[in-house]
Design a protein that fits this description.
The complex is a heterodimer of chains A (about 260) and B (about 350). Helices cover about 30% and strands about 30% of the residues of chain A. With about 260 residues, chain A is an alpha/beta fold. Chain A has two domains: about 1-75 and about 160-230, 3-Layer(aba) Sandwich (Rossmann fold), CATH 3.40.50; about 85-155, no CATH class. In chain A, strands 6-7-8-3-9-10 form a six-stranded mixed sheet, sandwiched between helices. In chain A, α3 (about 95-100) runs parallel beside α5 and α4 crosses α5. Chain A starts with a strand and ends in a 7-residue tail after the last strand. Chain B is globular and about 70 Å long. Chain B has helices spanning about 1-40, 50-60, 70-105, 120-130, 135-160, 165-190, 200-205, 215-235, 235-245, 245-250, 255-280, 285-295, 300-325, 335-350, 355. Chain B has about 350 residues and is an all-alpha fold. Chain B has a single domain (about 20-355), classed as ABC transporter involved in vitamin B12 uptake, BtuC. The longest helix of chain B is centred in the N-terminal third of the chain and has 41 residues, at about 1-40. The chains are: A alpha/beta (about 260), B mainly alpha (about 350). The interface of A and B includes residues 72, 90, 108, 132 and 133 of A.
């Protein structure tokens, strides 16, 4: 049970953005996509979600080519959590989460009691059931992100893709969302997420695909990939990786250096 | 856990309650519509008192021969007033349902059903037909095919232009361009039209009116268009909710976005095109009725779509009453909807500031 990316090349019309990328995510594990702006994280996502066709290479989910799934089959297999945004209409949170059931419902798309139960359970799994009656557009960024994750959970998929789930969130909400994502992986979901925070890669305890600008990709565990050397190559700045201690427990922290700090 | 399940019971019960309330609201709207229809049947420059109204309807239903003093009123009722009111109801519903659907598709509450050019092109078609001395049927057909043709042109253009994502914005821009071309054609037609006969006719048509359109043929035509357009839109209404987030999200939730986009455009264009070709361009209804309804019932298309249809029908019936009775001639309904609609819209913007952000 896994998503396997094999020599994936994708991009727009005549511009290749991602070239020959290979990676793998098993159910119950988490893969972080890390890399500088414009390196193709979003493009790769769009290709996995089939919004963009592959130029070459292949993506298989559970040993089946992604091309072979219908829209609704695919939506039952893999869920997408976009960055928290503001839609033009002020839906109730519970309605938003129930929308995750779309693929499971018939042509009339009418949710039954079973669907409502699942929508509610998804909110409860994230401890967000108190939001059910609130208006989605009036929530804070962190709350909105939780609602979108709940909506993805309501899809009852094996895999979940999250696009920078911690961006635009405050200090506390970032770690709350990260905790949630890791918990979901531990509960059996296969997760791919992009992030701009190398430390989140350490903290999520998963695998990482580090994307460099020259179409070079380094795939492995956080410990293997997140070295001073690789990060400096990826971002073009000096990086220090420090062992931090908290209650006799050591963990790595990554820190980009300012010019005067390198002296 | 015990507390949790209790809380879920409360939330689920509230959901059920909300659904029941929506159903009650729809019933109320239907009753209001029937009420408006009954009042309007008697209303007008040839006034028919209520008891006479019921007597005539009773005679018609039971098949009894009408009393001599009811003959004239019966003719007014069944040949003039009822067809016109039925057309009011259908056109009001058609414009509102397509406006609401377009607002969801384009994710913008400021979109009207004419955004892709159907109304302005239909206007140009009608103006041209009047210039060419065509009869009413000719005017209707020209308006219809110009309207549909313009939207097809917009879809073709945006297919040719678009690259990558922004398909919708390209579509809107193409709509603006095509509309302006057809509006220029309309102005040209007005400029060269004979100022005594044809120019007033064109102008009157462009302002919209039910004065000449309430007849059996038009009711059948509009009824068929309404059926063909409304059934797919109503069937898709819960999926429209998903579409208002973004097309990428909708697709990842299992919606066939492309097919849905075309279905919405085709159905709405059929509805608007038929309305406009029979009754002229009636502004504002397709924009403000979904808006008012949204303030009333919230943004969920599950209820928004049927409620918009009913509100649109009620609005059209009420407004057309003014048009046919306020002055001895006829007021063009497009003018009245704008005069009533614009202040109403501003009032709503004040009232609904929070909902709009």
């Amino acid at each position: 049970m896994s998503i396997v990316l094999e020599n994936v090349t994708c991009g727009y019309k005549d511009k290749v953005v991602v070239k020959d990328l290979s990676a793998e995510v098993e159910a119950g594990t988490l893969l972080c996509l890390l890399g500088p702006n414009g390196v193709g994280k979003t493009t790769l996502f769009k290709s996995i979600l089939r919004h963009l066709p592959l130029m070459s290479g292949s993506i298989h989910i559970n040993n089946r080519s992604v091309k072979s799934f219908s829209y609704s089959e695919y939506a039952k297999l893999i869920a997408y959590v976009p960055q928290a945004h503001t839609p033009p209409f002020s839906f109730k949170v519970f309605d938003v989460v129930a929308m995750g059931r779309t693929a499971h419902m018939g042509i009339w798309g009418r949710p039954g009691k079973h669907d409502l139960d699942i929508a509610l359970h998804s909110l409860e799994r994230l401890g967000a059931e108190a939001l059910a009656d609130r208006i989605y557009t009036q929530l804070s960024g962190g709350e909105r992100q939780m609602v979108l994750i709940a909506r993805a959970l309501a899809q009852e998929t094996e895999y979940m893709i999250l696009d920078e789930p911690t961006s635009n969130l405050d200090f506390g909400n970032q770690i709350r969302v990260l905790n949630t994502v890791r918990k979901l992986a531990q509960e059996g979901l296969g997760i791919i997420m992009t992030t701009h925070h190398p430390n989140h890669v350490f903290q999520s305890q998963g695998n990482v695909a580090l994307m460099l600008r020259n179409h070079e990709y380094i795939f492995g565990t956080a410990k293997e990939v997140m070295t001073k050397n690789n990060l400096e190559k990826a971002y073009g700045v000096d990086v220090a990786i420090i062992d931090a201690y908290y209650k006799d427990h050591a963990f790595p922290v990554c820190y980009p250096l300012m010019k005067e700090e390198t002296l | 856990m015990e507390q949790n399940s209790q809380e879920s019971q409360i939330i689920l019960a509230r959901e059920k309650n909300a659904l029941r309330k929506e159903r009650i609201l729809l019933v109320i709207l239907v009753l209001v519509l029937i009420g408006a229809l009954m009042i309007s049947l008697g209303f007008g420059r040839y006034s028919i008192p209520v008891e006479q109204l019921f007597r005539i309807i009773g005679q018609k239903i039971t098949g009894k021969a009408p009393l001599p003093e009811d003959k004239e009123a019966g003719l007014v009722l069944f040949l003039v007033r009822l067809p016109r009111l039925l057309l009011n109801i259908m056109v009001g519903a058609a414009l509102s349902v397509s406006g609401a659907s377009f607002q969801g598709l384009f994710r913008n509450p400021m979109v009207s059903p004419g955004i892709l050019g159907v109304s302005s092109a239909a206007g140009a078609g009608a103006a041209l037909a009047i210039l060419l001395n065509l009869n009413t049927l000719g005017v209707n057909l020209m308006a219809f095919f110009f309207g549909i043709g313009a939207v097809l042109l917009v879809m073709l253009l945006s297919r040719l232009i678009r690259h990558g994502g922004g398909a919708l914005i390209v579509m809107v821009l193409s709509g603006v361009v095509i509309s302006s071309i057809f509006r220029a054609l309309t102005s040209l037609a007005k400029y060269v039209a004979d100022a005594d006969k044809k120019l007033p006719e064109i102008t009157f048509w462009l302002m919209g009116s039910f004065a000449k359109s309430g007849n059996a043929r038009n009711i059948v035509v509009m009824g068929i268009a309404l059926l063909l357009g409304v059934v797919p839109l109503m069937a898709m209404r819960r999926r429209m909710n998903v579409l208002t987030f973004s097309e990428d999200e909708a697709q990842s939730m299992g919606v066939n976005v492309k097919r849905m986009r075309y279905l919405i455009i085709i159905s709405s264009t059929l509805l608007t095109g038929t309305s406009v070709c029979l009754c002229g361009t009636i502004e504002w209804v397709g924009l403000i009725i979904p808006h008012i309804t949204r303030l009333m019932v919230g943004p969920n298309y599950r209820i928004l779509l049927p409620a918009s249809m009913l509100s649109g029908s009620i609005f059209m019936v009420v407004v057309d009453n003014f048009c046919r009775s306020i002055i001895p001639g006829e007021l063009p309904i497009g003018v009245v909807t704008s005069i009533i609609g614009a202040p109403l819209f501003i009032y709503m913007l004040f009232k609904g500031r929070k909902e709009l952000t």
